[in-house]
Each structure stands twice: as structure tokens, then as C-alpha cells.
């Protein structure tokens, strides 16, 4: 089942859309993520916490694609079949680049999320999108530009206790992302519900 949000795609317009497929989170999860972000903010760094309204878990990043391709993606995603699933928040961690912390994340656990991602990956591969080499089920909670004391920062992040809040997932979304000076602005193109 799906919900059409942006049904006015102009097939003659060849503008490219930056698109991705994701899930978002209920309020109780966002409240816990906000609490964890406050803990991260107590450790000195230069960078930015992800705005609560922009928190999501990316299942597949499609990149810049033409609107005609967006329509193909919309149709193909209708073929994805999945049941409502239970997920939970896991631990906090870091992605680093050349020893410099760059991304702070919280893991999202639940085996069915891997199955959903694989199903989406297979459908998108049919349209010529490369399969993910390594999917990590996480949500980005902060982007780091600079940390003076890297050892302290990398040591403290995994010690932040994240409450293992459980939640139900019954839909995923195809999104459009516009990069603006204030940060990314996301628009729902389509929602796909569990069956």
C-alpha cells in the first residue's frame, strides 16, 4: 500500500532531484535521541547536531536523478512487500576518517530492517542503481568538523548510555533532499506502507 504525496511531477522537466529512501522515528525515539545529543554536546567539538526534524535512517541513497527516473523508482517501490516490524535503539558510536571523528550515530537494531533494505536494494538494482556494499543500520545524530582532544571524544561517545527503546515500523519513504544554506530540506515524494 502506498500514499502519493507529490503527484505533480512534470515529466517534461529534466531537473535532477537528490533522492533517498528512508524510515523515520516516533516521538518517544526522538526524545531519547535528543537526550543523547545533549550528552554529545557536553563533549567539546566543532560541528553540528542533526536537527530533530531531519533525523532518519537511510535505507538507500539514490543520488541526483532525473524526474523521469523518480517516476520509475516510485513504481518499482510499490513492489516492495514487508510486514510491520519491531526495532530498537542500540549503542552510540563513531565513524572516523583518517583518525578524525566525523559522524556520531546511534545503531538501529532488528533483523527485519536488514531484510527490508535488501529488498529495496534488489528492486533499485533492477533500475540500474548499484547495490550497497555495506549497509549499517544507523541514524546520524551529529556531524563533526573538528575535535581538539580526539582520544577523549572517541572514548566518551561509546560510553553514552542509549536506552534501548523499542518501536514499530510500518512504512518507509522516498524523499527529495534540497541542500540550502540553512541545511538540508526534505520533502516526502511517496510513502509505502507495510501489508
Any key phrases for this structure?
195 residues; alpha+beta; Cyclic Phosphodiesterase, Chain: A; five-stranded antiparallel sheet; 4 helices; 25% helix; 42% strand
Any overview of this molecule?
The protein has helices spanning 27-41, 67-77, 111-126, 150-156, and strands at residues 2-4, 16-23, 46-49, 57-66, 85-97, 100-109, 138-146, 166-169, 171-180, 183-193. The protein has 195 residues and is an alpha+beta fold. It has a single domain (17-193), classed as Cyclic Phosphodiesterase, Chain: A, CATH 3.90.1140.10. A five-stranded antiparallel beta sheet has the order 1-10-9-2-4, with helices on one face. Strands 3-7-6-5-8 form a five-stranded antiparallel beta sheet, with helices on both faces. It is globular and about 50 Å long. Residues 7-13 have low confidence and may be disordered.
Amino acid at each position: 500500500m502506498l500514499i502519493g504525496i507529490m503527484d505533480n511531477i512534470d515529466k517534461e522537466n529534466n531537473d535532477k532531484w537528490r533522492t533517498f529512501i528512508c524510515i523515520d522515528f516516533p516521538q518517544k525515539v526522538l526524545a531519547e535521541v535528543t537526550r543523547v545529543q545533549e550528552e554529545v554536546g557536553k563533549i567539546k567539538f566543532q560541528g553540528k547536531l542533526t536537527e530533530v526534524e531531519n533525523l532518519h535512517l537511510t535505507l538507500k541513497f539514490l543520488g541526483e536523478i532525473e524526474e523521469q527516473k523518480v517516476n520509475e523508482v516510485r513504481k518499482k517501490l510499490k513492489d516492495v512487500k514487508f510486514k510491520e516490524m519491531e526495532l530498537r535503539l542500540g549503542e552510540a558510536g563513531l565513524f572516523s576518517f583518517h583518525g578524525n571523528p566525523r559522524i556520531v550515530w546511534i545503531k538501529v537494531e532488528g533483523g527485519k530492517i536488514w531484510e527490508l533494505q535488501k529488498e529495496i536494494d534488489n528492486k533499485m538494482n533492477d533500475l540500474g542503481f548499484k547495490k550497497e556494499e555495506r549497509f549499517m543500520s544507523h541514524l546520524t545524530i551529529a556531524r563533526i568538523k573538528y575535535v581538539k582532544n580526539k582520544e577523549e571524544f572517541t572514548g566518551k561517545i561509546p560510553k553514552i548510555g542509549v536506552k534501548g527503546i523499542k518501536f514499530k515500523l510500518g512504512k518507509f519513504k522516498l524523499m527529495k533532499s534540497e541542500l540550502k544554506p540553512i541545511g538540508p530540506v526534505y520533502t516526502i515524494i511517496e510513502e509505502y506502507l507495510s501489508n
